[in-house]
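Inverse folding, one chain.
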């Protein structure tokens, strides 16, 4: 049996990678414009990083991590999300000693989660994320949301809206947890097994459960924004004011809590109403205690993550055109060793002047080479045989019009440019 990719792992083939590169170019340009610099962290981390940072009560830690013991008898985990590793790097490399805030992004980062594969959600998927450390003002939250809006608008996505909520901080969260436990108490036996465990450990996680019966029970649960302390309440009001100034449409959605334990205060999703049923294009929020959890000093932080596979599927479903694999401008057909050497020489002359040229590598007949040139959608074909070598004049065929002209070798650039523009 032929070997295949593991379940939930997918190859990105050459005819698809152009779409990824197009999206990535826009992401990089926007991050540079907003002052974010790229960070690249290892794909493998100590398991303790995710236990401390992501949280024991999350689905990621409980069900989805690829964890194993290495040859040094250490428990290590393939990165299931991006932020914890960036926070670890922030602490390890003493970035807090430099100018704050530190604004970083990561791009095309592979994440690994053992879950049921579905469209846009694979066991290995790739993420674009933005992290800002050292900024406690709500304007930093708004800047992250604004960057998402700018990216989506650049890609042609319409009908954008931010869903925002505040889940409080360690000062006000206990009061909300108590109110939520009281609300859920009479329905405790009807919750799923995982949520019954969460009831004592972290009841806020129950609001993020995907089980239909748990979602129905939580439909009228107390709202986190009704239990905020003065500081969290002020921060949330400032966020709304910033979004108003930036003319970013938003809805306060009390059911958004995000799936990771490190979030505090602001949590958000950006959705597109153009898809019919609203669909989240990214999620993020504030995580003011994460740096401290992984061994650093107290440090406010905010960011978001966006799945690239999911984004590309969404863009295609919306009918947004994404660039395809670039086809050659010109193919050089040759016959015989001397002609192939000349074809190679012309190909490099064209390439060095910004023209994508290909030539024969497998010894096909002229007929087969023309078929190949047509298959790869070459705009023009140069023909070099014995007679062309002797005369010094080569044939150039326009594959769209079917017309044919001749040119001398030293005039190849002008001849090709006249056809391809």
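Residues assigned per position:
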């Amino acid at each position: 049996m032929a070997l295949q990719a593991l379940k939930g792992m997918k190859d990105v083939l050459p005819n698809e990678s152009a779409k990824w590169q197009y999206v990535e170019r826009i992401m990089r340009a926007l991050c540079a414009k907003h002052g974010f610099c790229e960070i690249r962290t290892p794909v493998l981390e100590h398991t303790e990083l995710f236990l401390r940072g992501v949280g024991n009560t999350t689905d990621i830690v409980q069900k989805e991590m690829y964890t194993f013991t290495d040859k040094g008898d250490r428990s290590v985990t393939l990165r299931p999300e991006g932020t914890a590793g960036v926070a670890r790097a922030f602490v390890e490399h003493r970035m807090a000693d430099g100018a704050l805030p530190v604004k970083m992004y990561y791009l095309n980062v592979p994440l690994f989660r053992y879950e049921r594969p579905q469209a846009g959600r694979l066991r290995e998927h790739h993420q674009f994320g933005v992290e800002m450390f050292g900024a406690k003002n709500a304007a930093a939250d708004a800047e992250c949301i604004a960057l998402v809006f700018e990216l989506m608008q650049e890609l042609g996505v319409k009908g954008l809206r931010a869903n925002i909520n505040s889940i409080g901080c360690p000062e006000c969260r206990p009061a909300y947890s108590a109110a939520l436990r009281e609300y859920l108490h009479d329905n405790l036996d009807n919750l799923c097994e995982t949520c019954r465990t969460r009831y004592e450990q972290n009841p806020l996680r129950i609001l993020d459960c995907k089980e239909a019966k748990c979602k129905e029970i939580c439909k009228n649960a107390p709202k986190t924004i009704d239990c905020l302390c003065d500081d969290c309440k002020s921060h949330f009001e400032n966020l709304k004011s910033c979004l108003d100034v930036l003319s970013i449409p938003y809805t306060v959605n009390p059911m958004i809590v995000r799936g990771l334990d490190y979030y505090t205060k602001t949590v958000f999703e950006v959705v597109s109403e153009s898809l019919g049923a609203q669909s989240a294009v990214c999620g993020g929020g504030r995580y003011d205690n994460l740096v401290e959890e992984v061994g650093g000093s107290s440090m406010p932080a905010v960011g978001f993550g966006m799945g690239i596979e999911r984004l590309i599927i969404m863009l295609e479903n919306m009918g947004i055109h994404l660039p395809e694999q670039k086809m050659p401008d010109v193919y050089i057909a040759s016959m015989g060793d001397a002609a192939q050497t000349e074809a190679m020489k012309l190909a490099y002359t064209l390439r060095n002047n910004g023209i994508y040229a290909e030539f024969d590598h497998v010894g096909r007949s002229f007929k087969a080479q023309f078929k190949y040139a047509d298959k790869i959608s070459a705009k023009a074909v140069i023909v070099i045989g014995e007679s062309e070598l002797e005369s010094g004049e080569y044939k150039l065929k326009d594959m769209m019009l079917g017309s044919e002209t001749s040119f001398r070798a030293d005039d190849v650039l002008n001849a090709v440019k006249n056809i391809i523009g």
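DSSP finds 15 helices and 16 strands in the chain. The longest strand covers residues 102-112.
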